[in-house]
UniProtKB/TrEMBL annotation:
Cell membrane recorded as keyword: no
Pfam families with a match to the protein in the record: MdoG (PF04349)
Entry GO MF terms: carbohydrate binding; catalytic activity
SUPFAM superfamilies xref list: E set domains (SSF81296), Galactose mutarotase-like (SSF74650)
Domain Glucan biosynthesis periplasmic MdoG C-terminal: 7-476
Compartment(s) where it occurs, according to its Swiss-Prot or TrEMBL record: Periplasm
GO cellular component, one term: outer membrane-bounded periplasmic space
Record-stated family: Belongs to the OpgD/OpgG family.
Keywords: Periplasm
GO aspect biological process, one term: beta-glucan biosynthetic process
Designated name of the protein: Glucan biosynthesis protein D
């Protein structure tokens, strides 16, 4: 849809359908001015739009949009359009609308397009609420948070030896919001070697920021490993991790685990780790009710980091809209020595491959939040995890602490038992320490793996055959 054309969301879908009938056209990334592809990060982020380049600034619409320059690792061009009074308006590149800081501006009359855009929300005190930049990546946050976890509209073949395929956005159409609406709508056209797609995202910022995502995908080829609701984040070190670094800070992570609500109604929490070798875990389910990467640690003292403020990073909760059928929540944990790497990846992988030439629709709601809007309450949740050397041989000692209102009830506490398994391996020295005055219970045990180098652990507190807590899962590797 070009300048001056009447906008209709169905035209984005039709554009994706028509594009899927042709081979993908390689993205041109070699047209950047000299030095822009190798700009240091600190210089690149210094390139910001001038007030005259901010879309809808001064119109009191509750949102402003800042076009983002190309450069650094963001070399792929993206076309930006606005939709005003149902009419498409092209956002033209104009170097005079950017402050280049320490960077030499590009030549005059060169159309570089853009690398993405940033959204600020609020009337009196606007704050950055979302960034769409690079491939199909985007970030958001709730009021009072720092940017952290990263979402992807689509992920293809991650962690496979044949290599990951990276879809990318070719164009965005951003609807001008009405002043009192409280939301902004973004349409996007995505492309990749094996598929195309039309994406509609409705963003509602606040104490919880919601993004409703609707995708229509057109497969050029068979898609046997596709991921929906993908989130990525950093986990370098923490109390549950065996890897240690020569670091002043006791913990370095913006996500602490994967939270899941299965189709059968079971609440599961799996802490993430920085493994010595690549780890891929699959949590099989049918019609999941929710999942996501969460940051449970909110105590600044756990990080001792006055710059990064990891305790202010968002949790990201995915709620499927409609039935997603059979598949699995996939968790990929990648070894990392740098906190700059998003080494934790979680997404939904459908069991059934998507046939070539087919059309697929997917919808889900993201919550960028302090804690997921759906919570395990009244079940107790995992609040502390520790592990260390066991009493002998290859044994490993664990301490898992649960907290919740149920654990203040003397009757429930007296009836509570720990249902724990290790596969393979055996559980030794199981003990429970109730602390009703602080509404918690600590479970201590050792795992004896025998001659095995991997054990899948499962623990849930039960009373009278019913769960008192969420289910804690973990993978021990030697």
């Amino acid at each position: 849809m070009a300048e001056g054309q009447r906008f209709d969301p169905s035209l984005v879908v039709e554009a994706a359908r028509m594009l899927s009938r042709k081979p993908t056209i390689p993205t041109v990334t070699t047209d950047l001015p000299d030095g822009y592809a190798t700009l240091p990060f600190d210089q690149f982020v210094g390139i910001r739009a001038q007030p005259s380049g901010m879309i809808w600034a001064g119109e009191n619409r509750g949102f402003t949009v800042e076009p983002l320059h190309r450069g650094y690792v963001f070399s792929a061009p993206v076309s930006l359009f606005t939709v005003e009074d149902d009419t498409v308006r092209r956002v033209t590149f104009d170097r005079s609308k950017f402050d280049y800081g320490r960077v030499t501006p590009p030549p005059v009359n060169v159309d570089l397009q853009f690398s993405g855009f940033r959204i600020a929300a609020g009337h009196e005190r606007p704050y950055e609420v979302a960034i769409f930049q690079g491939a199909t990546f985007f970030r958001s946050l709730a009021r009072g948070q720092n940017f952290g976890a990263l979402a992807r509209a689509l992920i293809l073949r991650p962690g496979e030896q044949r290599g990951e395929e990276i879809p990318f956005f070719r164009a965005f159409w951003i609807e001008r919001p009405s002043p009192a609406s409280g939301f902004i709508v973004i349409h996007a056209l995505l492309d990749s070697e094996s598929l195309t797609g039309a994406v509609r995202m409705t963003l509602r910022p606040g104490d919880v920021t919601f993004i409703d995502v609707e995708m229509t995908l057109f497969a050029r080829q068979v898609l046997d490993h596709v991921g929906f609701g993908c989130t990525m984040g950093t986990f370098l070190s923490g109390p549950q991790s065996r890897r240690t670094f020569d670091e002043l800070r006791p913990s370095i992570h913006e996500v602490s685990g994967v939270q899941m609500l299965t189709g059968g109604g079971e609440w599961i929490y799996r802490p993430v780790n920085n493994p010595a070798a690549l780890q891929v875990s699959s949590f099989v389910d049918t019609n999941p009710r929710g999942f996501g990467l969460v940051q449970r640690e909110r105590d600044p003292g756990a990080f001792q980091d006055d710059d990064q403020r990891f305790e202010l990073r968002p949790s990201v909760w995915m709620e499927p809209l409609g039935e997603w059928g059979a598949g699995s929540v996939q968790l990929i944990e990648i070894p990392s020595d740098s906190e700059l790497n998003d080494n934790i990846i979680a997404y939904w992988r459908p069991r059934q491959a998507i046939a070539a030439g087919s059309e697929t629709t997917v919808a889900y709601r993201q919550a960028w939040c302090w804690q997921p809007p759906e919570r395990p309450a009244p079940l107790a949740t995992v609040t502390r995890i520790r592990q260390g050397r066991g009493s002998q041989g290859r044994r490993r000692r664990f301490s898992v602490e649960f907290s919740g209102d149920k654990l203040a009830d003397a009757g429930i506490v007296a009836a509570t038992r720990a249902n724990i398994t290790a596969t393979p391996g055996s559980v030794q020295g199981l003990r429970l320490w109730p602390y009703p005055e602080r509404k918690s219970m600590r479970v201590g045990f050792e795992i004896d793996p025998g001659t095995d180098n991997l054990s899948e652990l499962r623990l849930v507190l039960e009373a009278g055959g019913q769960p008192v807590s969420e289910t804690w899962l973990d993978r021990w590797t030697w």
